[in-house]
Design a protein that fits this description.
N-terminal domain of MutM-like DNA repair proteins; 23% helix; 251 residues; 6 helices; alpha+beta; four-stranded antiparallel sheet; 10 strands; 2 domains; single chain
Length: 251
């Protein structure tokens, strides 16, 4: 599943391509909104909130927000009018066309249309956005410490505590701070440092370097120890927690 930095890149790409343009055609290919027509509406911006994408459209029928979530396989592609789609048409879930550009969302995990005024209420459950302009470290720490016995790997990935962290950054941030994934949140030696390091790595788009310390690797890039993979999370929702047992000893 794309993490916060990838979603932010997608938001920036859509924002640059669509903002200020008038829609000539919209096609939301989900049953609940299949008959919605926002053509003649003006796109006023796209932003990310954690792993959520919010495209705002001013239309004669109201001020709307197209909410999309990539989930595991979703993506948005920005194309020229008439350009061949890179994926089959049956995989398209949303199409936003203007005179000069076409944005197509493929295999989107969620497609919703909200009144703009509903945005905050709909996303109120999310924790502070690590990449957001309104980042609140004290609130993030409060939410994390509300369940002090929870494994820190699971807590970092909980969007209700921190918005934007996924499996990759949870593993890599725990590695660089020397914390074992199963360490209870309340026992992390320096939780503030862990949160700040996670935020720094997301903001720097560390995953784009392709030089992971442990995630997806067979051996630790620092010491060469065989990487261990734990399955962490509720039954049926487990995620792989990569770690180096030498650099992240369980205490």
């Amino acid at each position: 599943m794309p993490e916060g930095d990838a979603v932010r890149r997608t938001a920036r790409r859509l924002d640059a391509a669509l903002t200020g343009q008038v829609l000539t055609r919209t096609d939301l290919r989900v049953p609940a909104f299949a008959t919605v027509d926002l053509s003649r509406g003006e796109v006023v911006g796209t932003r990310s909130r954690g792993k959520h994408l919010l495209t705002r459209i001013d239309h004669e029928s109201g001020r709307w927000t197209l909410h999309t979530h990539l989930r595991m396989d979703g993506s948005w592609r920005v194309l020229r009018p008439g350009q061949r789609w890179p994926k089959p048409a049956y995989q398209a879930r949303a199409v936003l066309s203007t005179a000069s550009v076409q944005a197509v969302g493929f295999l989107l995990g969620e497609v919703d249309l909200w009144r703009r005024s509903e945005e905050e209420t709909r996303l109120a459950y999310l924790g502070p956005d690590l990449l957001g302009p309104d980042w609140e470290e004290p609130e993030a720490l409060r939410r994390l410490l509300a369940a002090p016995e929870e494994p820190v790997f699971e807590a970092l990935r909980d969007q209700r505590k921190l918005a934007g962290v996924g499996t990759i950054y949870a593993a890599e941030a725990l590695y660089v701070t020397g914390v074992h994934p199963l360490t209870p949140v309340g026992s992390v030696p320096d939780l503030e440092r862990l949160v700040r390091r996670t935020r720094q790595m997301l903001d720097a788009e560390w995953s784009r370097t392709g030089r992971m310390w442990v995630y997806g690797r067979k051996a630790c890039r620092r010491c060469g120890t065989t990487v261990q993979v734990l399955r962490v999370g509720p039954p049926g929702q487990e995620r792989p927690a990569y770690l180096c047992p030498a650099c992240q000893p369980e205490r």
